[in-house]
Structure formats: C-alpha cells, structure tokens
Amino acid sequence: MKKLVLAATVSAFAAPAFAGGHTGPKQEIEMEPPVIVEETEQASTAAGIIVPLLIIALVAAAAGD
C-alpha cells in the first residue's frame, strides 16, 4: 500500500514537470509581411462617350417623328 501511495504522489508531482517538455533553444520565426494587391478599375472612355451619344440620337429620332 505504501508503494501505491508513493507512486501516486510521485506521478502527481512529476506530471506538471513533463507537461511542457523541452523545446531547446528558442527559434525566432521570421514572417514576411503580406503582399496586398489592389485591383484598379480601368474606366473605359468609349463607354463614357457612346452611351450619351446614343441617348441624344434616340431623343433626336423621337423628336423628328
């Protein structure tokens, strides 16, 4: 019975000692900063001119009737 109590006591105090383990010398991890790429919208100059011209042509055609 004494051996059982002694084994339980030793294992209770030894478990936290082994919980962390040995990691050796601390190694620093170097991480590169994330690369952020922004997509730029390319405004089409043709669409900016064609749509108003079509509206003017439709209004002129409707007024001509």
Would you kindly provide a written description of the structure presented here, covering whatever features stand out?
With 65 residues, this protein is an all-alpha fold. The chain is built from two helices and no strands. The protein has helices at residues 2-19, 45-64. The chain is rod-shaped and about 115 Å long.
- The secondary structure category is mainly alpha
**Count of helical regions:** 2
Number of strands: 0
Approximately how much helix is present in the residues? Answer: 55-70%
Mean pLDDT: 76
Order of helices and strands: HH
Give the overall shape. Answer: rod-shaped
Strand coverage percent: under 5%
> Regions with pLDDT < 50 over 5+ consecutive residues?
none
Distance, first to last CA = 114 Å
* Largest sheet: number of strands, sense, barrel closure: none
Q: Could you tell me the radius of gyration in angstroms?
A: 39 Å
Using brief descriptors, characterize the structure shown.
single chain; 65 residues; mainly alpha; 2 helices
